[in-house]
Amino acid sequence: MKVAHFRDMYDAMHTGIVAHPAYITEANVGLLAQFDFVFVCIDKGPARKLVCAHLIDCGVTFIDCGMDMSLSKKEQIYGTCRVTMASPTMRKHFFERAPTMEDAGDALYDQNIQIADANALNAILAVMRWKQHFGFYAMNWDWHQLEFVTNTMALARSEKSEDQNATPPDHA
Q1: How far apart are CA 159 and CA 145, in angstroms?
Q2: Total-model pTM
Q3: Residue pair 39/63 in contact by the 8 Å Cβ criterion
């Protein structure tokens, strides 16, 4: 499995990486309840539904990120990078925003195409949102949905927490 490969690759830079070479199933999804924050990056809709429904039920804050890429008639790639956060105070939007169906917009990936720059951007947006959540980066409002559209280079935020004070920080 990929987990051992990446553990070995990053172990030289960061100690304490523990590989868990198992797929998450109904039998072991309960192990995720011990975490206070989880990054979810799953390409299969039903697996995303299983994991994220459990995290929501347990009150665990998490970020799910994913991409929906397509090929135009001119054989140019276009699509969306998505970052969706769910927290105990803001989670009702999650299943309206994150795909959980069997074919979750990954038809282009079925052709084994890899889009390293879009993958990297999606990961960077997720990590930056995590850093905002924990106070490293300032934020003007507590958004829980971000979408970057490649063909327009547009970035949209939505799903603002209703209980969030919208006053920007003094230094913003």
Answers
A1: 6
A2: 0.80
A3: yes
Dump pLDDT digits (tens) for 14-67: 888 888 888 899 999 999 999 999 999 888 888 888 999 999 999 999 999 988
Any idea where the domains of the chain sit in the sequence? Answer: 1-34, 36-160
Nearby residues of 116 by Cβ (< 8 Å), 6 or more positions away = none
Instruction: Report the CATH superfamily, name and number, of domain 36-160.
Output: NAD(P)-binding Rossmann-like Domain (3.40.50.720)
- Please, what is the Cα angle at 169 between 167 and 172, to 5 degrees? 115
